[in-house]
């Protein structure tokens, strides 16, 4: 069973989720959602910009109809693409995501990118949704320390999560330290670095020691540091592999070896440079 971490509002969030970035809308994704739930995933992460919320929702509906899970047992995340959105437009974007997914609420709604200081008005909208109990939790994605500090000075509610690009080549020490200080959980997107890390020699040696795959070692590295992780795969065997990481533990030396792979290298945009 996937374990959970407690958010700063007291709600529990599974520490491993199923990501669907760059997966096209359609029956294949619907089937993958059902398979993920069968395998034990309870957290599903999507976003408006992914263009696949309807298929995610259809997959969830199928899994519920098959008696695999109840809605209350799932943790569903989506994100608003806040390109200059007003308060009202952000509320409308949330309602549109709910309609596409066929859901009455989301467990977590995130601001997808800070952009060029475009997040304060959308954040006020998220706060309103949260106060009205229309969403269970609210958070951010791709926020640097100065974005988080600005939000802290201007907002009423602290984000529960900051979802960022994070893997052994980009360990994000400064952002993680700030989040820990302010009780914001860190969630890793692209934890396997688009599979690039799976051929890394250091990762391979550690994997061989434990009789595990490279992916399992990296995802275990996440969990042992209190990082929520959302690997993506459409292959059932790999989906199962990614969630089967509770029967071994990395040593402090192995954790240090993985941290030493840090190069500050991103595969996604730099939040300080990316303005949609």
Provide the descriptors you would attach to this structure in a database record.
276 residues; alpha/beta; TIM Barrel; two-stranded antiparallel ribbon
Structure description:
This protein is an alpha/beta fold. It has a single domain (4-195, 227-232), classed as Alpha-Beta Barrel (TIM Barrel). It is 39% helix and 15% strand. The chain contains 10 helices and 10 strands. The strands form 2 sheets. It has an 8-stranded parallel β-sheet. A two-stranded antiparallel sheet has the order 1-2. It is globular and about 55 Å long. Substrate binds at residue 112. InterPro entries: AKR, Aldo/ket_reductase_CS, NAD(P)_OxRdtase_dom_sf, NADP_OxRdtase_dom. Keywords: NADP, Oxidoreductase.
By CATH reckoning, the class would read Alpha Beta
Distance between the first and last residues' Cα:
38 Å
Number of helices: 10
Count of β-strands: 10
Q: Which stretches of 5+ consecutive residues score pLDDT under 50? A: none
| Total tally of structural domains | 1
CATH architecture: Alpha-Beta Barrel
Assigned CATH superfamily: NADP-dependent oxidoreductase domain
Percent strand = 15-25%
**Rg value:** 18 Å
Report the major sheet.
8 strands, parallel
Nearest-integer average pLDDT: 97
């Amino acid at each position: 069973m996937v374990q959970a971490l407690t958010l700063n509002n007291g709600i529990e969030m599974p520490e491993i989720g199923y990501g669907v970035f760059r997966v096209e809308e359609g029956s294949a994704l619907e089937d993958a959602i059902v398979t993920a739930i069968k395998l034990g995933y309870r957290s599903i992460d999507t976003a408006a910009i992914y263009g696949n919320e309807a298929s995610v929702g259809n997959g969830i509906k199928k899994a519920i109809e098959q008696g695999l899970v109840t809605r209350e047992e799932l943790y569903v995340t989506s994100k608003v693409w806040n390109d200059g959105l007003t308060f009202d437009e952000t509320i409308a974007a949330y309602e549109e995501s709910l309609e596409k997914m066929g859901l009455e609420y989301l467990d977590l709604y995130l601001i997808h990118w800070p952009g060029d200081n475009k997040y304060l008005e959308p954040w006020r909208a998220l706060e309103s949704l949260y106060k009205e109990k229309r969403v269970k939790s609210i958070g951010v994605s791709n926020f640097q320390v100065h974005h988080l500090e600005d939000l802290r000075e201007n907002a009423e509610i602290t984000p529960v999560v900051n979802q960022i690009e994070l893997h052994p080549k980009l360990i994000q020490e400064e952002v993680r330290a700030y989040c820990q200080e302010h009780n914001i959980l860190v969630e890793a997107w692209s934890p396997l670095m688009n599979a690039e890390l799976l051929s890394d020699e250091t990762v391979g040696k550690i994997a061989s020691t434990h009789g595990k795959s490279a992916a399992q070692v990296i995802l275990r590295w996440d969990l042992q540091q209190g990082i929520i992780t959302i690997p993506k795969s459409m292959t059932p065997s790999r989906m199962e592999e990614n969630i089967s990481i509770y029967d071994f533990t990395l040593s402090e030396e192995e954790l240090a070896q993985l941290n030493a792979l840090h190069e500050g290298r991103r595969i996604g945009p730099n939040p300080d440079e990316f303005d949609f």
